[in-house]
Write a structure and sequence with these properties.
alpha/beta, 14% strand, Aspartate Aminotransferase, domain 2, aminotransferase, binds (2S)-2-hydroxybutanedioic acid
Length: 400
Amino acid sequence: VFANIVQAPEDPILGVTVAYNKDPSPVKLNLGVGAYRTEEGKPLVLNVVRRAEQLIINDQSRVKEYLPITGMADFNKLSAKLIFGTDSPAIQENRIATVQCLSGTGSLRVGAEFLVKHYHNRTIYIPQPTWGNHPKVFTMAGLSVKSYRYYDPATRGLNFQGLLEDLGSAPSGAIVLLHACAHNPTGVDPTTEQWEHIRQLVRSKGLLPFFDSAYQGFASGSLDTDAQSVRMFVADGGECLAAQSYAKNMGLYGERVGALSIVCRTADVATRVESQLKLVIRPMYSNPPIHGASIVATIFKDRDMYTEWTIELKAMADRIISMRQQLFDALRARGTPGDWSHIVKQIGMFTFTGLNTEQVASMTKEYHIYMTSDGRISMAGLSSRTVPHLADAIHAAVTR
Ligand code: LMR
């Protein structure tokens, strides 16, 4: 019965790792998936995560019972505080329904499924470009996906005018996906003033903001600064959704730990929203896994561990920033044609290089450098040792 099934293509991001793994070259370099690597090119388990895991393992009172459908209550409360701020009136007024989900993707999917069932408008506007999985998540949930202009290839910066025009002409009530910080793949974020402008437009048009927050702490190194955009929207008392991931900022990629929050106008509405979220989650995966959420909650509940986390997080963010400078300097030293200042201006895990598909293909073929075909490179996968190799490859690609 399955004989006619056609071979599906690899995922545009995760498929890069599949290709990389098959390459026997000793100089190969994976700058595809956004996963942090040390200066030695190794995956990093944060020290504070190891400490938390040790405490969890040693605690004989811990059992392996099912979590509630909505996940671990402490984890949810602390996750809301992390993104909305400890003194957020919306938290104090119990106006937020937060549920533990399977990292950022799972949180987006649960949010989208909820909107399809309970929100009157099924169109979501996503930035052009955006993370490749966004349109798939929303389409599979049953939303209709449209895009708004975001990136300007000419300036390698924000197309603010285009963004305002497109959101300005979106139908009232449409959902708008916003990257809370460190826009993926471009590394281009609005300024605080631009965010304020966007907020006014979104609110005046009655659009529903849905934030994807996958990089809190990774853009600037400060958890508060990177949540500023979300907090501006919550401060005006209006509704929004926020999907959080702990993959990058706590290095918990494979633990699949994240949260979806829906900010409502009243506590009563939030209670009813949570009850409906349970009906969305139960038939999908029943309830979320314990381990990752236990790590996060253990770290958040202990002041020393929380501080240690912020220090380790800042160190990761700083290393990425230093990679930007080193790559920029290496291209300048080679006299590589072009203005590469966007490498140091863009923020977060990725640089949107401006290299085209053919140039990327030639870098993979000749230099064994793996990256997504849109020219995005994960700065977190780079090290001082590999910068010269990448700079050589970019130089060759743009001068051939
Ligand atoms: C990425 O964009 O590389 C990450 O968000 C990982 C993923 O799942 O695509």
